[in-house]
Amino acid sequence: MRLIKLATNMSVGLGALNEIGEVFRQSNAPNKLFLIMGPTTRKLSGDAVASRLTKEGYNVVTHVIEGGATFDNAEDALRRVKESGAEGIVGVGGGSIIDIVKYVGFKLDLFTISIPTTLSSDAIASPFSVLWKEGKSHAVRTKSPNLVIGDYDVLMKEPHKFVAAGFGDMVAKYTALFDWRLAYWLGDEPYLDFAA
């Protein structure tokens, strides 16, 4: 038997960020938060999320990361979060930002929140972070976020190329299920209906 870990809470819909305070309270999110975003996502929704959380009574420290999901950026964020004394970490952005947030959340055992601005990959909820070092990507085992909030109003604004990438990612995962079944039927690979 295998334990399959999933994000414990998910809130999606039109205007989902308008209810962020209530969703955080229902999810038992801690009060002291460190919010990470990129320069583009800061304008798109990052500043608005920070402002709304502050109005809801949360203590929020913000940090903008430029340069993508590198080990250097992840370690710098880890240091900043540790120094802040935050009990939870929030990522507002695409896969790179959320991968850094999951890495830091895992390393510091923090309540981790994913607020995606694009659906071009499964980074928003997967238990892995892809971090770059010396021109090579490394998949690092982390943990799935404790909470994922998907606001359709934000996600509808993503460029069409990211929508296409998301569909490509989805199709690849769907066809991988058939590969998995084939490995089960022909080999010695366990197959789990729930995971599939």
Structural class: alpha/beta
Number of strands: 8
Q: How large is the share of residues in beta strands?
A: 15-25%
Query: Looking at CATH, which topology of the largest domain would you report?
Result: Rossmann fold
Bin the helical content: 40-55%
Stretches where pLDDT is under 50 for at least 5 consecutive residues are none
**Alpha-carbon distance between the two ends:** 15 Å
Overall geometric form? globular
CATH architecture of the largest domain: 3-Layer(aba) Sandwich
CATH class placement of the largest domain: Alpha Beta
Give a short account of the largest sheet: 6 strands, parallel
Mean pLDDT: 88
Strand order of the largest sheet: 1-8-5-4-2-3
Q: Quickly count the domains.
A: 2
Order of helices and strands: EHEHEHEHEEEEHH
Please provide a written account of the structure.
About 40% of the residues lie in helices and about 25% in strands. It has about 200 residues and is α/β, with parallel strands linked by helices. The chain has two domains: about 10-160, Rossmann fold (3-Layer(aba) Sandwich); about 160-195. Helix 2 (about 40-55) links the parallel strand 2 and strand 3. The model has no long low-confidence stretch (mean pLDDT about 90).
